[in-house]
Amino acid sequence: MKLANRLSAIKPSPTLSLSAKAKALVAQGVDVVSFAAGEPDFDTPDFIKQAAIDALKQGFTKYTPTSGIQELREAICAKFERENHLKFAPDQVLVTVGAKQAIYNTFQALLNEGDEVVIIAPYWVSYPDMVQLAGGKPVFVETREEDGFAPDPEAIRRALSPRTKALILNSPSNPSGAVFSRAALEGIAQAVRGHDCLVLSDDIYEKLLYQGEFLNIGNVAPDLLPRLVVINGMSKAFSMTGWRMGYVAGPKWLTSGMQMIQDQSTSNAASFAQKAAVAALKGPPDIFVPMVEEYRARRDMVVDALNSMEGVRCRSPEGAFYVLPNVSGLFGRSYKGTPVTGSIQMSEILLNDFRIAAVPGAPFGAEGHIRLSFATSREQLRKGLERLREFTASVR
Ligand SMILES: Cc1ncc(COP(=O)(O)O)c(C=O)c1O
C-alpha cells in the first residue's frame, strides 16, 4: 500500500520537525537552547482562561455552527472595524481551527489544478505546501534584505499571470519580522490593480509591532476591499497557540465555499475556546503593551549580539518575534575541516555540536540566513547567543 500522490508534492514542516527534535533531546536530558519556537513564551491571560472555564462549567460543550458562534463572529467584525478600519458582516467571517486552517481552507476552496498563487519571499514555510496540496502552483517573488524585504512592484507585476488566483501578504512577516510600509503596500496594490486575483493578508503578527501603526493593504487601497481576504487568529497576540483559534473574513462567495470544506472536515473550532476568544477580543486593549515591550528589549539584545559576531549580519525587525540573520559570510569557510555549505547544514551543526535549535532559512525562501525566534527568556537567549558566538569563532 502506498500513500496518496498528493503527499509527494509537500515536505514536513521544518519548524515543527526541528522543534520536535530539540524537545526530544531535552527529554533525554540534553541542555538544548531552542530558537525554533514559533509561539509566545507568555501564558494565556487569566481572564481568557476563565471565560473558557465558565463556558465548560455552563455546559457549553456541544457542536456549534461550523462558521463559529454568532457572538464570536460579531466580536471579530467589531474588532476589524475598531482596530483595522475594515468592515465585514458576520456572514463573511469563518472561525477556524487556528489561522493555519483558514489559509488551508482558502486554497482548498479557491484553487483548481495549475492555478497560481504569488508568494513573497522570504515566506512562511507552510504557504507553498498548502498551495500545492490544493493542486496550485506557488510563484515566488524575491525581495532584498537591503529593501527591508519589501517587494518591487515590478517583480509582482511580472509574477502575475492569467492563472494567478491570489497574492499572499504577511506583514509583520514570519520569518523576517519585516513590516511593509504604506509606500510598499501602495506599490503592491498598484501592481495587482487590473488583475483579477484575490489579495490574502495574513495579519497574525499584527499586535507584535515595534514601531509605527499596523496597516492592512485594505487601509491604503480601499478599492481592493471586494477581493481582500484577511486571516488572523488568537495564537500570537493572546498567547493562545494551543487553543487552535483562528478566523478569516472575505468575500461571501469564498467564505461560503470554505465553510463547505470545513463542514466536511473538522466542523466547528472548539466551543469553549470560541467563548474564550470572545473574551479576548472584548478584553482590555492594552494587554499587549508589556509583552511587546519585553519582545522589543529581547530583539535589541539579540540583534546587537548577532551584529557583533564574525560573519553574521542582522537587520532589526520591525515586528513579530523572529530575527533572520544573514550568515552567508560563514559559507565557504571551514568548521572542523569541513566547509560550511548552507543554512540546512549549519542548523545541523548548531544542534549537534552547539546544542542550539535554529531553523535554516532555505525552506523559508531565505537561503544564506537562519531564523531565530526570540520568544524565549532573556536568560535562554543569552546562553544560546554565547553558543552561537562560539560556533562563529570556530569557523575559519
Ligand atoms: C505567518 C503565519 N501565519 C499563520 C500561522 C498559523 O497560526 P495558528 O494556526 O496558530 O493560528 C503562523 C504560525 O506560526 C504563522 O507564522
TrEMBL record:
SUPFAM superfamilies: PLP-dependent transferases
Keyword Iron-sulfur: no
TM ranges: none
RNA-binding is among the record's keywords: no
Domain Aminotransferase class I/classII large: 31-388
GO MF terms held by the record: transaminase activity
Cofactor: pyridoxal 5'-phosphate
Enzyme nomenclature, EC number: 2.6.1.-
InterPro entries attached to this UniProt entry: Aminotransferase_I/II_large, AspAT/PAT-like, NHTrfase_class1_PyrdxlP-BS, PyrdxlP-dep_Trfase, PyrdxlP-dep_Trfase_major, PyrdxlP-dep_Trfase_small
Name of the protein this chain belongs to: Aminotransferase
Keywords: Aminotransferase, Pyridoxal phosphate, Transferase
Family the entry assigns: Belongs to the class-I pyridoxal-phosphate-dependent aminotransferase family.
UniProt-listed PROSITE patterns: AA_TRANSFER_CLASS_1 (PS00105)
